[in-house]
Amino acid sequence: MKFLKYGLLLLTLPALFLLSCQRESGDERVRMRAQIVNIGDRIEVEVLESEYTSGPHWVIVSDKTVIEDKDGKGLGLSSLLVGDVVEIFYNGQVMLSYPPQIVAIRIVKE
After folding, report:
1. Domain ranges, residue 86
2. Has residue 12 been placed in a domain?
3. pTM, full prediction
4. What is the CATH number of the domain that holds 38?
5. In a domain? residue 84
6. Is-contact 48 110, C-beta < 8 A?
7. Which H, E and C letters describe the chain, residue by residue?
């Protein structure tokens, strides 16, 4: 019984260490620069610059999405207009649909 307790302890400690070293998925932010093409229940954009993706995308804006100007002043969704160029920050997850969809963490209007 004593051996079993020590064995479980030896197996548990490395797992706890690895879990504590991982970042939360919300911490990893990917950036894209895009032009707004259409605004509806989602924002349709055309990617202008991105390390990972290109083409049209749908951007989902949640109640946690921060919208601001380049000076950091808070804006509302209504301040975004078709033709605006924006920087969109998201966690790197892309929904496999056409066009691809992302959930914005932060949108910065240029």
Report:
1. 30-109
2. no
3. 0.74
4. 2.40.50.140
5. yes
6. no
7. CHHHHHHHHHHHHHHHHHHHHCCCHHHCCEEEEEEEEEECCCEEEEEEEECCCCEEEEEEEEEEEEEEECCCCECCHHHCCCCCEEEEEECCCCECCCCCEEEEEEEEEC
State the total domains in the chain.
1
pLDDT tens by residue, 54-71:
999 999 999 999 999 999
Mean pLDDT of the chain: 83
Give domain status of residue 65, yes or no.
Answer: yes
Closest alpha carbon to 37 in 82, 68, 98, 75: 82
Question: Average pLDDT of 87-92?
Answer: 95
